[in-house]
Amino acid sequence: MRRLLGAAAMAATMVGAGMSLADDTVKIAHIYGKTGPLEAYAQQSHRGLMLGLEYATEGTMEVLGQKIEVIEKDTQLKPDQGRALLAEAYGDEEADIAIGPVSSGVALAMLPVAQEYQKILLVEPAVADSITGSAWNRYIFRTGRNSSQDAIANAVAIGKPGVKIATLAQDYAFGRDGVAAFKEALAGSGAELVHEEYAPQDTTDFTSHAQRIFDALKDEEGRKIIWMIWAGKGNPLGKLAAMEPSRFGIELATGGNILPALVAYRVVPGMEGATYYYYEIPQNPVNDWLVKTHQERFDSPPDFFTAGGMAAGIAIVEAIRKAGSTETEALIKAMEGMEFQTPKGKMIFRAKDHQALQEMYHFKIAIEDGVEWAVPKLVDVIEIDEMDVPVRN
User: Fold this and answer.
1) How confident is the model over 167-186, as pLDDT tens digits?
2) I need a surface site. Which of 46, 92, 124, 204 has the fewest CB within 10 A?
3) Residues 121 and 87 in one domain
4) What range does the domain containing 115 cover?
């Protein structure tokens, strides 16, 4: 009788920990903004996730002998909906792990749910520093780069002595965190941030914003740059370029973006910045597989967020293997400090805040015949140890 009771207790413990003896699947919830202004990012992220799971499992879509099931949920970029869907996935559908979302605002609403259910939320690709900073909890990991990594890389690219910079960003967590991190990263570079301009996420007319920026920069001495941090539609780069800032000696700069957005970069040949990914830049076996496979299946190269989604898929499989289960505490132990290979090369989950440390790329825009978008040509690889990414939690 004692042996039977002991076996029952052990089974109950394993069920509660996330590895049901009767359940032959690993359930991963992908909760992301499938519809709305960031749907292009979402499509890439999901495609990359599925490719990452395929690559990491060598096509079996199994880990530890269990089938991987991916549950898709659409936040529609609504924070309340993201929070409810994550609770539904963890609670009703018994997801072992969740991945997403696209929007930083939605991500911030979802973080407490992971803590409440004591299950892992792997954030990809939302960027705001506060996700692995002030709003962080120990159940949050992130493969996506954060605002500080973007900012530090761009500060390396354009933050030179005597340069005067104004910023244009979206007026929500992604934009404000990004500018704050960029401002911090410029410290000691010799460059000066002289103006910050924020616009609503759905802005399409940048006339008044541009005029305030021009007024702030036009009488400054030396090199003058407007640095933009923008996600989704609106095309501020193209619209500001059409206003001819060069008449005031002002240049434009921004980070990398998805291929359709890079079409707008054709108006700024020679522009420098830093990017998270462009498919021709990383030279490693994972990226070689991604580029070849994506071209064969979708008749196009992989994009910005495809690489991020793939990194998330690989990270999850590697973590489960290392942990030997989907039990949360085992996963946390396995993931803290874990190194894994991605289309960008090595990533490392920093133990202090679970942010993935990763290389970035200093680029210069070139126009190539037969390529419809502007090409970010590699100037320099910004290595992990070249970026002192702050711990903000």
Assistant:
1) 999 998 889 988 998 999 99
2) 92
3) yes
4) 18-145+283-357
**Does residue 6 fall inside a structural domain?**
no
Is the pTM of the predicted complex or chain greater than 0.85? yes
pLDDT tens column, 294-344: 999 999 999 999 999 999 999 999 999 999 999 999 999 999 999 999 999
Give yes or no for a contact between 121 and 102, defined as CB atoms under 8 angstroms apart. Answer: no
| 207-265 per-position pLDDT tens digit | 999 999 999 999 999 999 999 998 878 899 999 999 999 999 999 999 999 999 999 99
Please check whether residue 158 is in contact with residue 191, taking contact to mean a CB–CB distance below 8 angstroms: yes
Contacts of 200 (CB under 8 A, 6+ apart): 170, 171
The reported pLDDT for the residue numbered 23 is 66
